[in-house]
């Protein structure tokens, strides 16, 4: 993409309403724009990252056997009356009346609708296990939206729902999502730790939050150091095999959020294995049994011919929130440092003197060859000042920068900078292409 | 995808509420489910097609220089007061009050918000031309939603907005979208004809509807036969060159919707060049000058340093509607016939006897090899009746079907059926793989 044809509205000044670093950097890097309290437009650079996060989530959901559909944003109130949550949900639910005075709402979550879809079509144990998910915009009318897209009102969530015949198979469904989440966050270059969560009145031990570690995280978390080195399940993990050894290895060492923290148990660990850190919740998985299937009559016939309510779980990932979490975990004083897998572009090329006989052909050639190799490039072909060009590239945080200046090119070299390490090398155009291709393709 | 792990809720009976063929077939093929009047869930098969349509639209928008962003669904009422449309829009606008009694709405279109984004960041003619677009769910509270997703309330639209310094450059922006639309619909295997549309009080000749020809189309259209053979602009068309010769060649021959039809002009054509047909509107492009930039103060500085209101156009594609239009244009009595480029899967493999020593290994091997070649396969590994399996495959309309039965495999052959022509061939597994790979990859 040529910057001269792109839309990247960089802000020079730090917007004063932004309290946390990810909010500040997203506004400054022209990734988002607030349209009203807690409601944002995703500008081109922000949308690119959002889509990359979505693709990773989708690939790992598919690997774990979840099937994607898409439920609408607007739901009828009557569905929520069946579960009893229409009144219980309170003011966070955005309630709407249509032109025929029908009561509707902008979905904050989808347990009711997915249960309705399930009961409409599925009758037999033969159709189980089933896990249906979607990635859709939700609305929660927070009293005081803040922290940019980290606590917005309109936000993008992946929510999966599992349907199983009994608790045992439901546990396997739960384990599949548990493993999928470990892989999902790892692929984004994040350190995510599953931590036991409060299951509320239903009880049981099948609820975990996935917490990203980041120095500027929203809350304190406590964990056993061994979790930091725990291996991530491989790409070829057989999701239809018994996954409980993996889940056990991840849930045995101590790990707790502030809310669930047990000072005594944590204190009993060897001192040098105790880690306290800051974290950000990006996922939550939950087995809730027959809560909705009982209330809404979602039953299946067993092999013996009796009808039983189906066992369900739900599995959320805060897709838009992850963008903020990624920045909290990956930035320095100059801006964002994107992990390769979610970077909006992989390489930024800076032409120091557009129109120059030396810089133009080298930049155009490198741009064309990188793109042909499947590497996404943002090519700064504008006539901005050099200082502004460098600052913008550091701010938007692409993994590599290539600077083409007349002086270097007289000696036949480009400057190649690694954004994460700051390391710079002077390389010929050919060596630059080889280095970047090797670093950025599999 | 193994059908045993997919969610494809086929309906045996034709739902009586469905008045048109695309609605009937989408319900029967398990592509959509109505959640309330004019509001649908996109079941897995429907979502797959929707995403393929989106990808084609995105690729062609990018080729034409449009840059993608994403505006939220919920908009503040105040923006619409600035343009005067808050009151003018009437009951089709879904109006919402949030918990703080602020007036909001579910966006039916985005002229106001994009103009707001533009005026917030863009100050100079140097940043033009600019075309920003998004693909987002819209809501129009139709009195009587009908025809399935063809006239729903919550629907997916691509809407692009161009910003130019004057009318002449705005015309070039218009032409870029005109050419992009010809390519977009052609890639979906559709015959789309641009037809002059009413420009309302603004006047001028810069508004066209793109009408898909389909026997079961919603309205009558009239055109010169030469348009049916008009060449589509090539992939390597230079969008930054003068496109007016292309646009003229497409707009000179007679073509009109019912509303704009001129019986005398049509009658003056040679009799054998007059075509009257049925059509479905799937796109609408529109130059509206400074209507919104005047009202909302979206100005840019010219090279001479004066400030002028920016010239705008808007360019819509009915993304979810296209799915219905595609089915109206491509079906027979047995079901849908997907064009390759938008088919949810390319090949359906039917294992006539899952568990059989002969059929299982051949199916598994073919399935694995096709997928490895980048061909998407729906593998029916279920133990349904043969008749039901055939009917389902015909109904969902994948371009090719492969039937693996014990009898054929005793002779070492599979049956390969072309869904569009109905032609069947008996081929060895190797010849099947070669044939499908050749037919389905570039």
TrEMBL record, chains A, B:
CDD domains the UniProt entry points to: ProRS_anticodon_short, ProRS_core_prok
Ranges of residues in domain Aminoacyl-transfer RNA synthetases class-II family profile: 48-339
GO terms, biological process: prolyl-tRNA aminoacylation
Enzyme type, top EC level: ligase
PROSITE patterns tied to this protein: AA_TRNA_LIGASE_II (PS50862)
Catalysed reaction equations from the record: tRNA(Pro) + L-proline + ATP = L-prolyl-tRNA(Pro) + AMP + diphosphate
GO molecular function: ATP binding; proline-tRNA ligase activity
Pfam families documented for this protein: HGTP_anticodon, tRNA-synt_2b
Superkingdom of source: Bacteria
SUPFAM superfamilies cross-referenced by the UniProt entry: Class II aaRS ABD-related, Class II aaRS and biotin synthetases
Keywords: Aminoacyl-tRNA synthetase, ATP-binding, Cytoplasm, Ligase, Nucleotide-binding, Protein biosynthesis
Enzyme Commission identifier(s): 6.1.1.15
Family that this chain belongs to: Belongs to the class-II aminoacyl-tRNA synthetase family. ProS type 2 subfamily.
Subunit organization: Homodimer.
Protein name, entry field: Proline--tRNA ligase
Gene transcribed to yield this protein: proS
């Amino acid at each position: 993409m040529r910057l001269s044809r792109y839309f990247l509205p960089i802000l020079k000044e730090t917007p004063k309403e932004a309290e946390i670093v990810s909010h500040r950097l997203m506004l400054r890097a022209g990734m988002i724009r607030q349209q009203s309290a807690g409601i944002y437009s995703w500008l081109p650079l922000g949308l690119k990252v959002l889509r990359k996060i979505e693709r990773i989530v989708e690939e790992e959901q598919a690997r774990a056997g979840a099937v994607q559909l898409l439920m609408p944003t607007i739901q009828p109130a009557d569905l929520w009356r069946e579960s009893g949550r229409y009144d219980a949900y309170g003011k966070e639910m955005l309630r709407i009346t249509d032109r025929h005075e029908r009561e509707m709402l902008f979905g904050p979550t989808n347990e009711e609708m997915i249960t309705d879809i399930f009961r409409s079509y599925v009758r037999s144990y033969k159709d189980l296990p089933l896990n249906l998910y979607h990635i859709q915009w939700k609305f929660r009318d927070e009293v005081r939206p803040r922290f940019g897209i980290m606590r917005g009102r309109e936000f993008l969530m992946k929510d999966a729902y599992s349907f199983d015949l009994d608790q045992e198979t439901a546990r396997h469904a739960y384990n599949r999502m548990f493993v999928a989440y470990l892989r999902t966050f790892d692929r984004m270059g994040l350190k995510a730790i599953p931590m036991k969560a409060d299951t509320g009145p239903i009880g049981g031990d099948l609820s975990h939050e996935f917490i990203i570690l980041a120095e500027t995280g929203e809350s304190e978390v406590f964990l056993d150091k061994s979790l930091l080195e725990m291996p991530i399940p491989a790409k070829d993990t057989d999701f239809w095999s018994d996954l409980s050894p993996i889940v056990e290895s991840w849930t045995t060492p101590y790990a707790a959020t502030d809310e669930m923290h047990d000072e005594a148990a944590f204190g009993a660990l060897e001192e040098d294995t105790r880690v306290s850190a800051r974290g950000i919740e990006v996922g939550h998985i939950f087995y809730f049994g027959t809560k909705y299937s009982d209330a809404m009559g979602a039953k299946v016939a067993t092999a013996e011919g009796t009808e039983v309510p189906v066992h369900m779980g739900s599995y959320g990932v805060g897709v838009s929130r992850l963008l903020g979490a990624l920045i909290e975990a990956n930035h320095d004083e100059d801006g964002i440092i994107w992990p390769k897998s979610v970077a909006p572009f992989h390489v930024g090329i800076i032409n120091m003197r557009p129109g120059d006989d030396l810089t133009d052909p080298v930049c155009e050639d490198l741009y064309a060859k990188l793109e042909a190799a499947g590497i996404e490039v943002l090519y700064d072909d504008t006539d901005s000042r050099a200082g502004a060009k460098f600052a913008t590239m550091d701010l938007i945080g692409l993994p590599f920068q290539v600077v083409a200046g007349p002086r270097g090119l007289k000696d036949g070299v480009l400057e190649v900078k690694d954004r994460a390490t700051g390391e710079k090398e002077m390389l010929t155009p050919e060596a630059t292409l080889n280095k970047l291709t090797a670093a950025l393709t599999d």
